[in-house]
Amino acid sequence: MHFYTKNVHFPNKENAHEVSKTKPIYQTSAFSFTDFDDMENYFDGDKAYLYTRMGNPNSDDLGKGVAELEGAEMGVASAAGLSAILAGVLAVAKTGDHILATQDLYGGTWSMFSNDLKDFGIEVSFIDMEDRGAIESAIKENTVMLYSESITNPLLRVEDIEGLAKIASANKLYLMIDNTFATPYLIRPHEVGADIVAHSATKYIGGHSDVTAGVVSGSKELMTKAKGKVSMLGSNIGPFDAWLSVRGLKTLSVRMAKQCENAEALAKALNSQPGIAKVYYPKAASQTGNGAVVTIELEEDVDIMEFSKNLGWIKVVPTLAGLETSVTYPVATSHRPLPEETREKLGVTKQMIRISVGIEDERDIIDTFSEALVRTKAPSL
Ligand SMILES: *Cc1c(COP(=O)(O)O)cnc(C)c1O
């Protein structure tokens, strides 16, 4: 099956239901058995479900659906992107271990790695992942993992996953990639050597801004460990949230196709707009598109607060990946946890706006940004 077909036809016929075309929501905390003998069937492996924290048909569907598109043996769903990332990390790292992570991480991951993993006794060093020499010389005896993101935020750097996979395998390290911004529609990190792939399904996988969810994928061996972490840390996803995420996932291909097309057109149009100092948009990120996020840096003389008031129907939202175009202010949201000097070093500035491009007509999106620029530069018009 090709990507678009696979995208709609999981869950497959094996777990199709006789009456209901879509999978019902198993809104239950536990499963029942006819008698004690029957309950033994769970422990013998003949029955799949016992207690929802340890597994539920809806959360399994989400894990399976993403794993199938990513080309992984197994996927595990969890209550948020961050818990999926934590489960992936804890599948390979324990107290005393060291992780090398890219310095331009999503702010929440950066906080978890700098503070919470440290409290667990796992040390993380942040480095420039484009500097191969820096990676090689930062690898220590106790390093177990390289960690990066397929497309970074908000500067939209496209990671050389294949290159990192070579370094990882030469040094017997695991490679973990956060594929939230690209999704498997654009980039499939497992196919070029990543061992673990994590998603904030809150973003494009769910796609409708109505759920907080995460998925981690990889080999059966690693994901069995990750699933154990999700269930023992109690970060399992609720059945309804899993169901909503699966419903969103089925339209990933068509949403991404349209959103990437709109983003491409917007990036091109904004490139020649007066008032804009720089447009960040990936080139050749993949064969299917370059992503649905565009980051712009306004000229110093354009009042960014005023600009945000002139955007009409485009809402200010501190996240991305919804059906509707929205904007955010990275220094105040995703990158708020980072110290100012780190933000400056990365090039995340106070004149920067991250645009999450939606599925509207591209002409309306482009016109709204152009008009907002004109109005902000010359308020009397
Ligand atoms: C949002 C996001 C996360 C965190 O996901 P949550 O669902 O909010 O826990 C992690 N990585 C990236 C790249 C994100 O955009």
Can you describe this structure?
This protein has 381 residues and is α/β, with parallel strands linked by helices. It has two domains: 15-249, Aspartate Aminotransferase, domain 2 (3-Layer(aba) Sandwich), CATH 3.40.640.10; 253-375, Aspartate Aminotransferase, domain 1 (Alpha-Beta Complex). Helices cover 38% and strands 15% of the residues. The chain contains 14 helices and twelve strands. A seven-stranded mixed beta sheet has the order 1-7-6-5-4-2-3, with helices on both faces. A five-stranded mixed beta sheet has the order 8-9-12-11-10, with helices on one face. Helix 3 packs parallel to helix 10, helix 4 crosses helix 9 and helix 11 (252-271) packs parallel to helix 14. It starts with a helix and ends with a helix. The model has no long low-confidence stretch (mean pLDDT 94). Residues 80-82, 106, 108-109, 149, 153, 178, 180-181, 200, 202-203, 212, 214 line the site of pyridoxal-5'-phosphate. Keywords: Aminotransferase, Pyridoxal phosphate, Transferase. Belongs to the trans-sulfuration enzymes family. Its EC number is 4.4.1.2. The modification N6-(pyridoxal phosphate)lysine is found at residue 203. One of its GO terms (molecular function) is homocysteine desulfhydrase activity.
